[in-house]
Amino acid sequence: xxxKSADQTRRSFVSYHIILGAVLFAGIQSFTLxxxxxxxxxxxxxxxxxxxxAISRMRAWTGGRALPxxxxxxxxxxxxxxxxxxxxxxxxxxxxNISKQLPGYWERLQKPLIMMEQRAAISEEKLQAxxxxxxxxxxxxxxxxxxxxxxxxxxxxxxxxSLRSSLSEMLGEAVSSxxxxxxxxxxxxxxxxxxxxxxxxxxxxxxxIVGVIFxxxxxxxHDKALAVAQRIGMxxxxxxxxxxxxxxxxxxxxxxxxxxxxxxxxxLVLGLIAGILEAVPFLGPTLSSxxxxxxxxxxxxxxxxxxxxxxxxxQILENNIIVPFVMAGGMKLHxxxxxxxxxxxxxxxxxxxxxxxxxxxxxxxxxxEELYRKQYLQTVTxxxxxxxxxxxxxxx
Length: 396
Description:
single chain; transport; transmembrane; cell membrane
């Protein structure tokens, strides 16, 4: 009997690991398809937990969650709609000016290219004449009959190797790249719409979704699950606050730098656009620069170059100072951990994965402290860890 029981246990152990391996393999293979769904769910939960304290306070005045939820999300939508409406007029005027000036830009661009092609053709004719003369001279000195060589015409400017043809190909590639960016932008828009409605319905009644945690975790671990859930719920508002600080900072920088160029109204709209799109790191600053560049093209002159340089400088400032230090400082995370988490999340979820990079680092830290450290490192203090790190670095 003992041998039979041991065989059954061994078979169950092997079967369990085979099933676990199959599940992991299926998850890895389907992760590309499920990554956008998982990202949307993470964003819905994080934003809902971040807004939940405000909804809970307003609930005491209104007696329910529906009105506070509607007011907050309606305010957000109002900001988006007003920003787009305020920017529509200047954008239409700028596009009209660009369409009028575009033929002149193309003519000015083609003139130097045509001159270069003609000079190249003349140089090639001269070179062919010189080569023909040298060949004839060499044949006469050698006593060989001189074979007349018909001069070859240089390639026409319309040939595929001309500079203008190369420029046309480059423009075609640029259009293809723009189409790819537009497709990715459509995917981002779909995720954002999904997250918006997900947040709305979650804030209306979050208890069933949070209760799933306790329906899955065994009863003996409910205390740990509750501690983890409470700490994540306290962290989410800090994350949202740090994100808000970053958005306001970028929006103010764009507003102050664009005011002398475009005036107060247009600079205010550009600042609002930059602040809103700051919630989409990496791609957001690039998208926010497009309206400013279009306005600058409509004005002509060197305005476009100055605007492009200002946006590049703001993006450098954002990537090296604002994102690492504001986000890390607001959530008490090391800037290096935030940066590498961004790289990992971009690889896993795409561009929008940066939105959950810092929160995932904080959640991993919470899970480590609540599930691992309290279980296996109960006597280890933060001072002891810092002391060991100091010794490892040979610091005095």
